[in-house]
């Protein structure tokens, strides 16, 4: 159905009256509709008026234009429409009649069986032809509908919003609205990060990463906005929000968090080191260490600087990270941790040095052994 420019109030009133079942040229008044002998089909009445400013496409036209035969419409003649029906207009008339005062002395009001008037019966019989009907609903159908409504009610609101934004991204033709959409995605990422919705973040980032394939018509401005979304993943306030959420929920799931961290740029390495130093749970520390193992392999300045930190757990994690790289170039940096005040850090440093330099003079390391457990000497 389409409304075109130039639609007059008269045509609109006729259209609405025709849909309701009482076209203005078929009734003397709204209260006393005239009896109509001709076909009372809504589409027929509208076509007879030739409303140029209103375009209608019927279900029958759609079926026939799709290449199907007239048999596709046989459902309406198989007895299904002979079920018990109630006109919606009749219900409205009944409510109006109950609310309106009854004129005194009018024949055919209370004397008719059932309390109805003969005129009202004629009106109802006529209005049954308006194709506005209702069906009796069985208990099974009612239960099925209730369950469907319940499922829709329980649907995750965040996922529903993401589905809508995804559909807009795939189909919106307006460049101005697309620019606003990317701003909305940035706000969505903020909300998801603060809430710790890592799997949904993973879905969003994967979608945005493939946005060029979904929308090859993106302008350079839109591509810059898209790149800005990924560059902003490591903003200090977002890394802080990640740490606060993980420390607040020590047993929170981390599925999808690694994807978020790996999509950060190289300038995020100092921030990730700070995040690692402030996390409490070893499982959360392991996720950040895995991300740093990939991101910081060729940009390890922040890792080396962290070896001088006084927090033993943080330094041990950095030593473990360096040991995974198994690179002899870090041996001199590891030697500096032999002077760390925490004995567990010194032992970890010696273990890694023994792996990186399995042979050589170890005299300079002798002062690093714990006094309670001096190195054993082989029997002569």
Question: What is this structure, in a nutshell?
Answer:
The protein has 380 residues and is mainly alpha-helical.
Structure description:
This protein is mostly helical and 380 residues long. The protein has a domain at 2-98 and 119-130. Helices cover 56% and strands 1% of the residues. It has 19 helices and two strands. The chain has helices at residues 9-20, 42-49, 59-65, 88-99, 118-127, 139-153, 157-171, 175-195, 198-209, 211-214, 220-231, 236-248, 257-262, 269-278, 282-295, 301-306, 312-325, 331-336, 343-356, and strands at residues 2-3, 54-55. Strands 1-2 form a two-stranded antiparallel ribbon. Helix 8 (175-195) packs parallel to helix 11 (220-231) and helix 8 (175-195) packs parallel to helix 12 (236-248). Mean pLDDT is 77; it is low at 26-39, 75-85, 107-133 and 371-380.
Helix/strand layout:
Elements lengths: L1 E2 L5 H12 L21 H8 L4 E2 L3 H7 L22 H12 L18 H10 L11 H15 L3 H15 L3 H21 L2 H12 L1 H4 L5 H12 L4 H13 L8 H6 L6 H10 L3 H14 L5 H6 L5 H14 L5 H6 L6 H14 L24
Helix pairs in contact: 8-11, 8-12, 12-14, 14-15, 15-17, 17-19
């Amino acid at each position: 159905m389409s409304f075109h420019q130039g639609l007059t109030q008269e045509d609109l009133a006729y259209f609405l009256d025709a849909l309701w079942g009482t076209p203005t040229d078929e009734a003397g008044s709204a209260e006393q509709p005239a009896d109509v002998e001709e076909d009372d089909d809504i589409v027929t009445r509208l076509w007879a008026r030739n409303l140029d400013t209103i375009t209608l496409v019927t279900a029958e036209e759609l079926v026939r234009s799709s290449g199907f035969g007239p048999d596709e419409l046989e459902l309406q003649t198989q007895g299904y429409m002979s079920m018990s029906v109630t006109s919606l207009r009749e219900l409205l008339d009944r409510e109006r009649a109950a609310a309106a005062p009854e004129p005194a002395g009018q024949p055919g009001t209370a004397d008719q069986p059932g309390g109805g008037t003969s005129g009202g019966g004629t009106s109802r019989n006529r209005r049954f032809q308006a194709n506005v009907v209702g069906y009796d609903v069985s208990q099974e159908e009612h239960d099925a509908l209730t369950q469907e409504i319940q499922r829709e009610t329980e649907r995750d609101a965040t996922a529903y919003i993401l589905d809508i934004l995804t559909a807009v991204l795939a189909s919106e033709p307006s460049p101005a609205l697309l620019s606003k959409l990317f701003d909305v995605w940035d706000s969505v990422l903020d909300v998801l990060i603060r809430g710790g919705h890592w799997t949904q973040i993973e879905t969003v980032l994967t979608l945005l990463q493939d946005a060029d394939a979904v929308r090859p018509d993106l302008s350079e401005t839109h591509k810059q906005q898209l790149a800005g979304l990924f560059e902003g993943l490591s903003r200090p306030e977002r890394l802080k929000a990640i740490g606060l959420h993980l420390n607040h929920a020590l047993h929170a799931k981390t599925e999808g968090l690694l994807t978020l961290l790996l999509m950060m740029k190289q300038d995020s390495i100092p921030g990730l080191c700070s995040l690692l130093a402030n996390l409490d749970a070893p499982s959360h520390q392991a996720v950040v260490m895995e991300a740093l193992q990939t991101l910081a392999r060729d940009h390890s300045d922040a890792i080396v600087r962290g070896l001088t930190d006084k927090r033993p757990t943080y330094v041990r994690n950095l030593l473990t990270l360096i040991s995974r790289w198994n690179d002899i170039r870090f041996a001199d940096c590891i030697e500096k941790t032999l002077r760390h005040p925490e004995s567990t850090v010194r032992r970890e440093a010696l273990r890694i040095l023994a792996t990186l330099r399995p042979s050589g003079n170890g005299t300079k390391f002798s002062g690093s052994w714990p006094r309670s457990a001096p190195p054993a000497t082989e029997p002569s």
